[in-house]
Amino acid sequence: MTAPGRLLKMSDVSREVSLHRATIYRMIARGEFPRGRPISRGRVAWTEAEIETWKQQALTGAFSHAA
Questions:
Q1: What is the pLDDT of residues 25-46, one digit of tens each?
Q2: CATH number at residue 53
Q3: In total, how many domains does the chain have?
Q4: Which of 36, 28, 29, 33 has its CA nearest to residue 10?
Q5: 65 lies in a domain?
Q6: CA-CA distance, 34 to 18, in Å (whole number)?
Q7: Is residue 44 assigned to a domain?
Q8: How many of the other CB atoms lie within 10 Å of CB of 47?
Q9: How many Cβ atoms sit within 10 Å of the Cβ of residue 53?
Q10: Residue 4's pLDDT is what?
Q11: Is the pLDDT of residue 3 over 80?
């Protein structure tokens, strides 16, 4: 199994994918973006690996429409 890499907070994810956090939340609600995972009280994070996977899918046209 591949290591998940760093844990990214929303500001890191937003910067990585060049999308505003509101757009990311809308995409999560539509099932078009991975959900963050609770890592402590009031803190959600994404693994670097899942964001990299999402970026690859976005670049290869795996999604039907842009945000």
A1: 999 999 999 999 999 999 999 9
A2: 1.10.1660
A3: 1
A4: 36
A5: no
A6: 15
A7: yes
A8: 17
A9: 13
A10: 77
A11: no
